[in-house]
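In this supplementary section we document a worked example of the pipeline. Step one takes a protein sequence of length 425 as its only input; no multiple sequence alignment statistics are reported here. Step two produces a three-dimensional model, which step three serialises into structure tokens for compact storage. The input and output of this example are shown verbatim.
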Amino acid sequence: MRKILSVVKREYIQIVRTKGFIIGTVLGPVLMVALMGVPLLVILISIDKQETVAVVDGSGEIFDSLVRKLDVRMSGGEPRYRLEEYKKAGDPETIKAELSRRVMDKELTAYLILPADIIAGGEAEYYAENVSAFDEIRIIQDAVSGVVIEKRLHREGLDPARVSASIRSVPLRTHKVTKRGAEEDTGGTFIFAYLLVFILYMTLFFYGSLIMRGVIEEKTSRVVEVVLSSLRPFQLMMGKILGIAAVGFTQYAIWAFFGLFASRFGPHLVGGLMPGGAAGFKLPSIPASVFFYFVLFFILGYFLYGTLYAAIGSMVNTEKEAQQLLFPVSMLLIVPILLIMYVVRSPDSGFSVFLSLVPFFAPILMLLRICVLTPPFIQVALSILLMLLTILLMVWLASKIYRVGILMYGKRPGFREIFRWIRYS
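The serialised model returned by step three reads:
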């Protein structure tokens, strides 16, 4: 045990003193803030961009009402949409050609063709360089639809305001029911769960790769031959895995501090940028058990994947050789990420339960189920038990491969040779 601890200490000090560790630890929270803040900033910038739209109103009844409908103001008070009515007579194709030229010359953002029979049921046409700005298109579509519906109601002798009030949709406030009672949840739990799963995925992949690179570096530099003169291969492997685990906990502790800071001041900072202020921005109430399971599944997932990465590192001579063996291991981490939306929608389905019990998927999918809809304790306990048994099996297999592979050089071994290493006593 003393020799393992000495390897742990060496690995820990060697990594935390590097510039990469310091930069990564600092940039981790910054990156997470950027991932959440940049989209918000982009939305705010796009809202303050004026759109110039030409309207060809074949009915002669829509344009004025459409101007009033699209009376949206930017932060400076200027109208966001500047509508320009095209009144020149001419062949439809000629009109489209002229307006398309103006779009290409950046004089117009887009142009809108409203046929003469639009109130009777005709289709409007929208032309622009970018027709992937779905939010912008939806705003214009809703405005045109609203004006046309009003005109139709007027023709039927109905008051559009009264009809609109009668068919107004009913707001639906969502509340999450737990053993602690019911509390309002507008999607914050899903965002938090996705954030935890994303952090877990990235750290398992990063620290696993760190173990593999460390093993390859020691093997290629022949340092391992000197080290193994004073301790057994199993002690070296476990010391390396535990040392990098300590590095991971150090980073998590620092990030947890940033998280507490964000939970204290984040709503006010973000709310100040959003309409309605901080009152409209609420962090979800997360039970302490979620954080406990997050740490637990990180530990279990780390040891499960860490042993695999250590075994791969011992079998190859360069990182390039390792890429071929890494693919199946990487897929074990990627598959649960691809299944996130299914598990979120049906966390208690039989398939979701089965997936969350698979040891290689459990760190991500069981944690996700715990965040979204706390599963029965027996399922969580069974998942943990299966992971522990799998970890013991993987440690046994990895130690068999590691003790032979760490001293093997030259050609990368095939699967038949690896099986011989495992059988070798």
